[in-house]
Amino acid sequence: MTEVRYSVGYALLEKKQQSFIQLSLLNTAKARGIDLIKIDIDKPLVEQGPFDCVIHKLNGPDWCKQLNEYALRNPNSVVIDSLDSIQRLCNRVTMLEVVVELEAACMMEFDPNSDTFGTPKQVAIYEPGQLKEGTGLKFPVIAKPLVVDGSVKSHKMSLIYNSEGLENVKCPIVLQEFVNHGGVIFKVYVVGEYVKCVKRKSLADISDEKLSTLHGSFRFCQVSNVKCNNVTNEESHYKCLEDAEMPPTSLINKIARGLRKAMKLHLFNFDVIRDTRVGNRYLVVDINYFPGFAKMPCYESVLTDFFWDVMNKEEVRSFGYQKEVKKLVNNIGAYVEENGGLHVRSVVKDEQDGVQV
């Protein structure tokens, strides 16, 4: 009997390939009958494959057109994920709007003693003149580039201690109010229905007394790797990480499930902090598409199981890209014109448990 094998084409930039497509993943997938095949981004996608599944982390109008054309010509191939869904994560305002909508929906079942979630206060600054008018935020604040395009530039941030630190920020940016969170950030990886939460070192808390001695700003890229100049005791900071209690699994799963359905995405992660002012209050501060999954424990088996489910479970396949293409496309040009912008879809009703997610 001939062995059934599946092909997963991947279109990734070189840096992402090096971190994600490791030999351990290739071998784990191969043992399950799944072959990961590199897509040549210098050749038309429709001339390659066809693949049972396509995963990608590229952007731009040309790639959008190629994906649409490929999906139309290969209706049995699953593309993960649609650029229309991914694009809302390319803007730090729209990425968190979906969390606000999800929070509002979950307030219908609000219990004052239960764990809650939301987002920090933030404001988008498009012109330097807006800074002079005031932001309405309380210092310190974190300045983040408005656009998230995967470049190093889009990950360059600043912790701003006072108005003096705003002098060197470059617009457009998002200013996000800094919330003391015990120096720990929780990274939640979502791969289809699989959810994994891990804890990482973050920026240390800043007391009002300490803030009065700080001026200007502090620049950094990745929060989990930063050695911030407001840390007075690095050893104590690491002990906080070790002793930090994980967020309730039920809450993390609820947020993950709600985001996955609202954004119609399979592969993403979101960063969560615990507001130390309110012990059972959690804040989503960032959402990233196709993050560094290789940092997730047992990522090889998790991704391989996901690929298998994509190609063998109808409920997973129907959640994919083709459904959106068939619904919205009369031709490729119409799709690009109607859905090229940034969108945040409304939360949807889950008929199974009667709760909006």
From TrEMBL:
Against Gene3D superfamilies, the record matches this protein to: ATP-grasp fold, B domain (3.30.470.20)
Query: Domain of life, per the record?
Result: Eukaryota
In its UniProt entry, the species of origin is given as: Tanacetum coccineum
**Which keywords belong to this entry?**
ATP-binding, Kinase, Magnesium, Metal-binding, Nucleotide-binding, Transferase
Task: Please give the subunit comment from the record.
Answer: Monomer.
Q: Under which EC number(s) is this enzyme classified? A: 2.7.1.134
Role noted for this protein: Kinase that can phosphorylate various inositol polyphosphate such as Ins(3,4,5,6)P4 or Ins(1,3,4)P3.
Q: Which reaction does it catalyse?
A: 1D-myo-inositol 3,4,5,6-tetrakisphosphate + ATP = 1D-myo-inositol 1,3,4,5,6-pentakisphosphate + ADP + H(+)
UniProt entry tagged with the keyword Cell membrane: no
What protein name does the entry list? Answer: Inositol-tetrakisphosphate 1-kinase
UniProt similarity note:
Belongs to the ITPK1 family.
What are the TM regions of this chain, as residue ranges?
none
Q: Which cofactor does it need?
A: Mg(2+)
Give every Inositol-tetrakisphosphate 1-kinase N-terminal domain span. Answer: 8-86
Please state every residue range assigned to the domain named Inositol 1,3,4-trisphosphate 5/6-kinase ATP-grasp: 113-309
Q: Which InterPro entries match?
A: Inositol_tetrakis-P_1-kinase, InsP(3)kin_ATP-grasp, ITPK1_N
Q: Tell me how the cofactor is bound.
A: Binds 2 magnesium ions per subunit.
